[in-house]
Structures are given as C-alpha cells and as structure tokens.
Design goal:
The structure holds 2 protein chains of 2 kinds.
Chain A: H1 2-13, H2 22-48, H3 66-93, H4 96-101, H5 106-117, H6 131-155, H7 161-167, H8 170-197, H9 199-207
Helix pairs in contact in A: 2-3, 2-9, 6-7, 6-8, 8-9
Chain B: H1 13-22, H2 25-33, H3 38-46, H4 53-74, E1 113-118, E2 126-127, H5 128-132, E3 137-144, E4 150-159, H6 160-166, E5 175-180, E6 187-191, H7 192-195, E7 201-206, E8 209-210, E9 220-222, E10 235-241
Parallel strand pairs in B: 1-10
Antiparallel strand pairs in B: 1-2, 3-4, 4-7, 5-6, 5-10, 7-8, 7-9
Helix pairs in contact in B: 2-3
Classes of the chains: A mainly alpha, B alpha+beta.
C-alpha cells in the first residue's frame, strides 16, 4: 500500500503534461487516412500514363482501374483539403506553429543533425521539437500546400489557369504534384520509423501525453 | 483530475502501443488492398455501414455528383481555355484511342454524311462539302487526357454553337449527343452549356490540313474545356436531346462532366 501512496503523490506532483492537444491528434489521424487514400489512388492514376520508366505495383493502388482511382482521388481530396485547411487555421490561430516550429536556424538544424547521426539527440521533453523536427514538420506543411495547389491546377487547368501559370505550365504542375507525393512518402517512412523508435511520441499522438 | 479520466486505468501500455501500431500506414495500406479492403477505409471515413463493394462504388459516385454540383456553383462555364502560339504545338501530336491506328475507322469522305436528329428544326443530313463551306476558325489549345498526359494542337473548324443555330437546335435542351463511326460505337454526351461554349468546335482540319484519319477524319468535336475522351472523333451523327444517353467511357465510370 505504501508504494501506491507514493505513486499517487508522484502523479500529483508531476501531473501528466498534454503533449498533443486533442485537435492535433484528431486532425493528424484524419490526415494520415486522407494521405494514404490520396497516395494509393494517385498511384493508380499515375500508372495510366507514367511520367517515368516505372509503374506502381497494382497491389499498392486503389480503385481497380483509372476510373476507380479518379473517383477515390476526388472523394478523398475533400477529407484532405477540409482537414488540412482546418489544421492550418487552428495552427496559426492558436500560435502552435509559431511556438512549436519556430525559430528554425541553420546552426540549430546542423547541430541537431550531427547529434542525431551520432545518436546523441534526445527526446526527453516531447513538448519541444528539435531543429530537425521543426524543419521537417514545417517543410511537410509547405509540401502539403504545394501538392493541393498543383493538384487543383492539373484537375481544373482551364478554370484555375492562374494556378497553372504559378507552376509554369500544365506538364510542370504535373511533375510538381508527383514530386510532392514523393516527398510525402519519404517523410512518411522517416516519420513512422522514428515514431516506432520513440514509442512515447506515438502514444502522445494517440492519447495526448 | 478530471482530465486524467481519459487515461483508462489498468490498460497495458504495451498493448496500447501494439493497438496503435495497427493504425499505422503500412498495415492500413495492406488492409485497404486486401480484397474488399477499401471498404474498411470507407467505413472509417464516413461511419456508414458499408457492407459491400457496390455500396462503396455508389458512395464514390455520389461524391462525384457532389463534385459536379460544387463545380457548377463555383466555376464559370464560359471560361476560355488558354490558347498558345504555333511554336508551342506538340510534334508529333499523339494518336490516342482504345485501338491501334490500323483499326481506326476509315471513313470515305464522299459517302459520309453528318446525321442530325432530335430537338432541331432542320434534320437534313450534311455532306462534307456542305460543312466545309461554313465559316471556320483556328484555335491552338491544349488537349488534356484523363490519363494525365497532354499535348498542344491546332484545330480548325466551325464553332458548334453557330451550327446549332443554323439547324435551329433547341438550345434549352440538356445535351448534344454524338455518335461515332467506331465499330464499338463510341459515343459521348456533351452538356448544352459546353456545346454553346465559344471554343467548342466541329473540327475539319488539324494543323491547317484536312483532318487525317489518326485525328478523326472527317469530323471531330473539339472541346478544349473538357478532357480528351469528351472530344469524339469520326463523328457520324449528333442528337439534341433532354435525355442522358450515356457514353463509351462515361458508362465505364469516367465522370461525365469531366470539365477542366
């Protein structure tokens, strides 16, 4: 019983800190689902007319054929866009982006990359992002905005001609869309691998602390 | 302390993490792919009780219709497709069909007549010579395929809206439905607003030469504000109608509006 009392006191003394507020967690997992649907249906669409000398394996595509892939892509886009927009607005309005992602300095990033490569980069306080995290999380938000804009440009190139112009021309917007996807996939691999290496960060994204 | 009630007492952390890992992309992905797996995602997505793949398809079709409604609401149907200088033309312009060029319709221009049906005052058929006498315009625009590739070409012909006026078409009708000489009977409906778009054209020439067989001799309908499959080639008839009669690709699942 004595040990129980002690642990209760400890809990009271250091109340569990909320690392990820509920809105971040909800939007994170909705985004994860939307991204996967968009990527798998996007691979289906890519395979109809590959930009490079390869196609994505059929088992990793959604929709069965081009027509099905397009239906999935243009359905899941709502989930991605509405959730993404809500995330951006909340992130700016609550000051979370400023507090968590800034500042990003070159020296800070270099220092933390070096620390990470020599396995000296700690994750003792999950509420503070290191410089590598800040750079990647801020970067992936920019990529997310770009992939939506380039996607809109190649979906409605007549109506949204100014968006096409922003990327140069239609084929360029298509390449931008592809490389944003590639960047998101690369991020996803690193992001999932690191979340599994630091399980408490995964827990924080599920239950908040 | 109320906040802590979110943490369920007695829950094994390792089990919790195990469970949470299940929601990670890798496994989710596999779950989507296995069989009717997309349904799992759909259930997650909507909370609906999606029981079979046909209801998943039905839901996707509903979203597609919803997309059409949103586009109709926010976009200007008369927006012009961008035009390009001659130097931008893609050479060679690709031949594209669901068959090889050797199997493309080989229409004899002397025998060919454009049949006109439906809600029009004058249902007389038109010979190629008669059509060639109509005023023609040239436009250089980008052809965008549903597959994603695109190419810039130069098309010359009569604006469809001028022809519809000439034959006394009821432009309050919903569609102009085109039928083609393909042996599988390619056809495609065009909504009236797009048919009346200033750039929608009955095309008789490509790059100032009589339309070659590869590009749809004797007549193609060029709609630069639509995806390529809404630009029928080897056209033999047009019908002005209020009925949605479907189309070759539309029936297989491509969105029928497919406006760009």
């Amino acid at each position: 019983m004595a040990s129980l009392t002690v642990s209760d006191e400890q809990v009271r003394a250091t109340p569990a800190k909320v690392i990820q507020p509920a809105w971040v967690r909800i939007m994170h997992w909705i985004n994860a689902l939307a991204m996967i649907l968009m990527i798998l249906s996007g691979w289906q669409i890519y395979n109809a007319s590959p930009l490079f000398g390869f196609s994505f394996p059929r088992e990793y595509t959604l929709g069965g054929w081009l027509g099905g892939g397009l239906l999935w892509h243009f359905a899941a886009m709502w989930l991605l866009m509405i959730n993404g927009l809500a995330y951006l607005i909340t992130g700016f309005a609550t000051g979370r982006f400023r507090k968590k992602l800034l500042p990003i300095t070159a020296s800070g990033v270099l220092h933390d990359v070096r620390a990470a490569l020599t396995f000296k980069l700690g994750h003792d306080d999950l509420t503070v992002y290191n410089y590598v995290q800040r750079l990647l999380y801020a970067g992936i938000i920019v990529v997310g905005v770009l992939i939506v804009l380039s996607g809109l440009a190649i979906w409605k190139p007549v109506q949204l001609y100014y968006l096409v112009m922003l990327f140069g021309d239609y084929p360029t917007a298509r390449y931008v869309h592809f490389f944003c996807m590639a960047a998101i996939c690369a991020f996803l691999i690193v992001h999932v691998a690191l979340a599994l290496l630091v399980p408490k960060s995964l827990r924080a994204m599920i239950i908040g602390r | 302390m109320a906040k802590r009630s979110f943490l369920i007492p007695g829950v094994d952390k390792r089990l919790l993490i195990k469970d949470s890992i299940k929601t990670m992309p890798d496994v989710t992905r596999r779950r989507f792919i296995a069989g009717g797996a997309s349904l799992g995602a759909l259930t997650l997505l909507t909370g609906c009780d999606v029981v079979d793949s046909s209801s998943a398809e039905e839901m996707l079709k509903q979203v597609s219709k919803f997309n059409d409604a949103v586009q109709a609401f926010i976009f200007n149907p008369d927006a012009l497709a961008p035009t390009f200088p001659e130097s931008a033309i893609t050479k060679p312009f690709p031949f594209n069909a669901y068959y090889d060029l050797d199997d493309a319709p080989d229409v004899d221009g002397k025998d060919w007549k454009l049949e006109v049906r439906g809600l029009v005052d004058n249902t007389k058929s038109w010979t190629l010579d008669e059509l060639y006498k109509l005023p023609q315009v040239t436009q250089i625009t980008r052809h965008i395929c549903v597959e994603g590739w695109s190419a810039i070409g130069s098309w010359t012909g009569t604006p469809l809206r001028d022809f519809l006026k000439l034959i006394g078409a009821d432009t309050r009708a919903k569609y102009v439905w085109f039928q083609c000489a393909d042996k599988d009977g390619y056809n495609s409906p065009l909504d009236m607003r797009s048919a009346l778009h200033p750039q929608t054209q009955m095309t008789f020439k490509y790059a100032n030469e009589i339309l070659p067989r590869a590009y749809g001799f004797p007549m193609k309908i060029r709609v630069p504000t639509k995806l390529g499959f809404k630009n029928p080639k080897y056209v033999v008839s047009m019908e002005v109608t209020n009925d949605y009669k479907g189309g070759y690709w539309e029936d297989q699942g491509y969105n029928s509006f497919s406006g760009s």
